[in-house]
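Hi support team,

I'm opening this ticket because the web form for multi-chain structure prediction keeps timing out on my end. I have pasted the exact lines I submitted so you can reproduce it. The total is 682 residues across two entries, so I didn't expect it to be a heavy job. Is there a limit I'm missing, or should I split the entries? Thanks in advance, R.K.
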Amino acid sequence: MLAGVGEEAGDLGEFELIKRLLARVGPLVADVLIGPGDDAAAVRLGPGATLATSDLLLEGVHFEFGLSSPADVGWKALAVNLSDIAAMGGAPRYALVSLGAPAAVPVATLEALYDGIGECAGSFGVSVIGGDTVRADRVIVSVAVLGEAGHAGMVTRSGARPGDVLCVTGSVGGAAEGLSLLQAAGDDPQAAGLLTQFPGLAVAHQRPTPRTREGQTAAGCGATAMIDVSDGLAADVCHICEASGVGVEIREASIPLPDGFRDTARWAGVDPLRMALDGGDDYELAIAIPAAQVSQLVEALAPTVVTPIGEFVGSERVAVRADGTREPLDALGWDHFKEEP
Amino acid sequence: MLAGVGEEAGDLGEFELIKRLLARVGPLVADVLIGPGDDAAAVRLGPGATLATSDLLLEGVHFEFGLSSPADVGWKALAVNLSDIAAMGGAPRYALVSLGAPAAVPVATLEALYDGIGECAGSFGVSVIGGDTVRADRVIVSVAVLGEAGHAGMVTRSGARPGDVLCVTGSVGGAAEGLSLLQAAGDDPQAAGLLTQFPGLAVAHQRPTPRTREGQTAAGCGATAMIDVSDGLAADVCHICEASGVGVEIREASIPLPDGFRDTARWAGVDPLRMALDGGDDYELAIAIPAAQVSQLVEALAPTVVTPIGEFVGSERVAVRADGTREPLDALGWDHFKEEP
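Hello R.K., no limit was hit. The queue was backed up. Here is the completed structure from your submission:
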């Protein structure tokens, strides 16, 4: 019998499986005093505040193996947590990964998933310090990340003031469009064509880039509030408005859109402004910053593009269309309980 | 319409649901700089090492609502993580809780589950600092806990030496027997009778007590290795043996058993020694400690009973029956992938 060919998770048992998987996620750093394999991990953290966040990703709800490779799923499971630390202006350091999987899943699939986790961890200087594996009827990835507050202090959602400029890193709306195209591509040659012509849209869904450097830098430039765009630009900016007790005006014409955005919105028959405001899962940073600091921010974040797209105001929350029409910003972002996936 | 009657998770939406649930888990302590509601939580931890652990509990695999109340499930989801911190000799401080649930689950069920988390958190001085809720086809509770290493330093699994005494807190085997009785009680009047006569067996399964004080105290008394009994006494002591490169002799006659243990083993038709060695989920501490320190440990842990049950030796791993028969200790503890639940 050939070792490793066709092996399933159930052939290995819990301890052997977790050992095999954790071997894929790269070496531990010196600050890891006790790594995986004991009752708990032990790490050293800086003297400042410790940041902590966790996310639970489920097959069939947050990802489909038909639309993302196992390595993409692993990358994204860690990336979305790093994005939360980035949105506080902090530096991610350590991750705990709990995995649920059916016994019949090929070990190679899980190894590829952990390769993706390892790739993301390596790219952003994070060590995977522990884990848990359990039998489940679908793949479940639960990640918790610990980080250190940045030297410039923590940036919450609650510090935006009227007059502050709203900026966003990269571009938004691409992840939602990429997902729609991936879901349709099997039956719809036009969708398949758009995916080929604009490969960045699929990548935006499958491998979001957590903006960890950008978050720390923005904190240093005087950002007053920050959030990562996970529920959709409108919903997430409204979270800042609620926490800060302010309003916002977003200029449609200024929103940075990825290549192929308008073609895809046309294919989907969706108002491009709605798609840009409501498409979630981009993991870009929405940043509130005093107007006087914007040019410094733009310079400091290069080569990452950061774009001023509006202004915080007294209380009204509106989007201003290119033709000057003003539309109320409804918080229509993704809601895990109310909407169907 | 009566507010709150018959409400389901899907009626509330993600943000309202998590707000309602986190309101049940008690006040935050001063060291929580940023609690739930921002991208990440921020806490202060002591200057020593930070301990971190996580566990993923699934309905149908780790718990059944027919056998445990929602509050029991919440208690246990946190308790098993506190137990891991205890087994390092550390003090648990903060918890992140991610919840998956079907939209049709009554909000009251989830609130009761969080009441159980809050009750456990309050009993052991832990603050719930963050959370995530997602839609799932069954209830999933994923908990990560941060703690501080104790003043006496961390106790891993790898420090046991030949000659050290093996001690165990409380009693073992009760949780597995309690689960068997609970599973059978509907159809089997004898099982139901045993549950009534020996209520501690159900409690051992439903509401295990994490030994956080005992773990820190044992570290101070000079424990050389420690583990919590989650997979079963034999399997967990074998984990110490593997990590420490030693063997062990466990004396059957010394193993502390709960009230009703032998009656239940007889009812189940199981060899009581097997049941005591292989029944997992007790969350007692197995402690290796030099012989000269045992009496100090017994005194310091009171009123919790701690019992010497054997000795670490060169390499052999055996259980010695009351009649002197020696049997190899197979690591037959619960394996999440190889065994059916």
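A quick check on our side: The radius of gyration of chain B is 21 Å. Let us know if the file doesn't open in your viewer.
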